Amino acid sequence: MCKIHILGNWKMNHTQKELASFCEEINSKWSELSDKAAYGIAPQTLHLSTLKTKAPKGLLVGAQNCSDQESGAYTGETSAVALKDLSIDFTLTGHSERRQLYKESDEFINRKTKLALENGLTTVLCVGETLDERESGSTAGVVCHQIEAGLKDIEPNKKLLIAYEPVWAIGTGKTATPDMAQDVHAIIRQKLYDLGHDAASTPILYGGSVKPDNIEGLLECPDIDGALVGGASLKATDFLALCRAGGMRNA
Ligand code: PGA
To answer: What's the gap in Å between 107 CA and the centre of ligand 1?
Structure first.
């Protein structure tokens, strides 16, 4: 069984002050959490170091994105080398907001994922279908294509995680039911296996309107190894409740 990961994606939210009060609250409750699961937060890039300093020791701090290039004249980008240099624990790649709003292609996401892994960063490759794709019955095809293209020329790597985030469930309050999510997670695991990856030990997280009141049902599914959470990770009380649920599953 994979280690459960509960990861928060703060997106473009939180000021320094909000970050500080979030940390104060989680610091006071941190020792109550099970050490069997892993917990992390990806804040905006400029808050990475502050979060690293203020968060409890053991909270994984991650980037929401990274460049497809190591260094050089790429204005506005953040390199995996610099993230590693700052001891950042993980990065997301291929989040649907990057795919949709910034037109990131599978090839581009593949270069980022490869470079991040080569630099020793734990990398969470995000995949997921749109509502149209689900309604036209192409969920499995879309997700398998994103996995195959995103992992092209990438060797099996213990630092790889996958997040299945149906686009129609992100920030909408519409969560996939545990059965719907489990079906796709099982397809993803099989695809990882077919591609020669270490399918059984690659954590596959679910994301899309995960909240304290629906996480338990999702985590009961055999192929759901945690959650990537946007909105509900912004409030310390909710984030702690999600972490508690994650810790229980691994108990
Ligand atoms: P949400 O976002 O939990 O607010 O739906 C999830 C994500 O985008 O990672």
So the answer is: 23
